[in-house]
Amino acid sequence: MPKISIIVPVYNVEQYLAECIESIKDQSLTDIEIILVDDGSPDNSGAICDDYARKDDRIRVIHKKNGGLSSARNAGLEVAIGEYIGFVDSDDWVDGVMYEVLYKNAVENQAEIAACNIAKMGLDGQFENFDIGNKDILFTRAEGMEELIRNQKLTFSSCNKIYKRKLFMDCRYNESIILEDMNISYRLLNQANAIFYTARPMYFYRYNDSSILREKFNKKRLDEYTVVGEMYNFYRNLYPHVAEQVLLKLHNIGVSLYVDATATDLSLNQTELEFLLEQDRTELVALTKSKKISKIGKIRVGLFLLSPNLRIGLERLFKKLNK
């Protein structure tokens, strides 16, 4: 059994793929398996995967019909045999010692999940660390679930982590939605007794200007509200002491999506979009009194309670100025 199975969904990335695979196969931890999932890529990515597999017997290639990122990851999970599971997006790359460090941290701390900081490469080629802190932290399950909401250290991303394979026994990526990482992150973390985080940036993320969340508004973006709504219900049932922070996220996303959707020429009218603004008023009032909510968060909710149209108008102005 290899120490780590590293799953790489591959689709239309021939210009970046070699750099990604090289960074994984040259890891200081050599006891790994690399599962390249060619998700029906129309370019030469599939052939590149096969070429690497011929040269390195740790590499396995799956060729499948295009089904999206979640489908490709799930296909990799079906055949993975490692003690831990890792994921790398095929236009990103990793530090040469990343998996050795994560595995060592996981084993020494008896952690089912080990994570590292992420370095984001912008369009200008400059790097920025996702977390500006410098502390390594061992989280309990409850502490990790609260930290996850902030999306700074642990982050919703699947790619800066290794997971004990048993965590996926009854858990798979949802293939019908966007924000698949957010949707599964808290479900996996909820099964872990310990999560170790190192502030060392070892996963290098390439800014993707074509992300669906950055494109002109389309109906798939409404998935974001559904995903965060499910997350809120999960926290409200199991972690009620921090659920208010998720509710605030849900409220802000609802307002933002409403503004974006009503600014488009899609076949959507305001009545169809009112569900984005329908959080329970009593719960929103509680947010304005919560010690866990920031002052700016309380102001935003307070404005909405005073006048939804005022809050929506200010959101439109803010987005316009940001552009």
Overview of the structural elements:
With 323 residues, the protein is α/β, with parallel strands linked by helices. The chain is 43% helix and 19% strand. It has two domains: 4-206, Spore Coat Polysaccharide Biosynthesis Protein SpsA, Chain A (Alpha-Beta Complex), CATH 3.90.550.10; 219-322, no CATH class. Strands 1, 2, 3, 4, 5, 6, 7, 8, 9 and 10 form a ten-stranded mixed beta sheet that branches. The model has no long low-confidence stretch (mean pLDDT 94).
What's the CATH topology name of the largest domain? Spore Coat Polysaccharide Biosynthesis Protein SpsA, Chain A
Order of helices and strands: EHEHEHEEHEEEHEHEHHHHHH
Can you identify the CATH superfamily of the largest domain?
Spore Coat Polysaccharide Biosynthesis Protein SpsA, Chain A
Number of strands: 10
Domain Glycosyltransferase 2-like: 5-169
Pfam families: Glycos_transf_2
Protein name: Glycosyl transferase family 2
Keywords: Glycosyltransferase, Transferase
Give the gist of this structure.
This protein is of the alpha/beta class and 323 residues long.
Which key phrases capture this entry?
12 helices, Spore Coat Polysaccharide Biosynthesis Protein SpsA, Chain A, Glycosyl transferase family 2, 43% helix, 2 domains, Glyco_trans_2-like, transferase, globular, 323 residues, alpha/beta, ten-stranded mixed β-sheet
